[in-house]
Amino acid sequence: LNIGVLVSGGGTNLQAIIDGTKFGGIKGDIKVVISNKEDTYALERAKHNNIEAVYETDEDRVIQILKNHKVDLVVLAGYLKIISPKFVESFREKIINIHPSLIPSFCGEGYYGEKVHQAVIDYGVKVTGATVHFVDEKADNGPIIMQDTVDVNHDDDAKSVAKKVLEVEHKILNESIKLFCENKLSIQGRRVFINE
Ligand code: GRF
């Protein structure tokens, strides 16, 4: 399948997907990486791997670029922009997002990046983690594909939790994309079933 990846930051999730397509058995090719931030390392990572890297902030042009590359799967990998209902409709059930918490905790408006992990520390939860989900019209709200957890210990702070969660993100994002490319995911209402 043809994959398009949308990024905003350092691109460690992008790197995980690149590695997954090269060595991890993902039956898909990343055709284009699009960032809404101009000089971000994620675009460098794409260039280093001979993947088309585009800086684009206009959503209509983003959709057109993805269509031009005949993208079958759009991955939001650290993409810090809410996508419009029009975008969701253009790729219905073909957009997945990685969020650094166990949705529905610590998600939605204002919960992104380090803020998520600070809220986890401040609340005093003992377990957090990451979630891969299909994207629908509401932020961080679509059917959940996969989740995994990390412990929050007394000596953890936002930074140490972020580091542990990022590892889990890379793992479950790759596993979810692999399953999508093998057409093993089916959505029934709010629930996603994996047909192994
Ligand atoms: C990180 O906060 C990660 O938890 C979230 O997006 C941010 C950037 O990730 N998914 P990346 O390193 O750019 O993939």
TrEMBL record:
Q: Which residues form the Formyl transferase N-terminal domain?
A: 2-175
Q: In which pathway does it act?
A: Purine metabolism; IMP biosynthesis via de novo pathway; N(2)-formyl-N(1)-(5-phospho-D-ribosyl)glycinamide from N(1)-(5-phospho-D-ribosyl)glycinamide (10-formyl THF route): step 1/1
* Entry annotation: catalytic residues: H99 (proton donor)
Question: Binding residues for N(1)-(5-phospho-beta-D-ribosyl)glycinamide, per the UniProt record?
Answer: G11, T12, N13
Q: Please name the source species.
A: Romboutsia lituseburensis DSM 797
Protein name per its UniProtKB record? Phosphoribosylglycinamide formyltransferase
Q: Respond yes or no to whether keyword Transferase is given for this record.
A: yes
Swiss-Prot/TrEMBL keywords: Hydrolase, One-carbon metabolism, Purine biosynthesis, Transferase
Gene Ontology CC, one term: cytoplasm
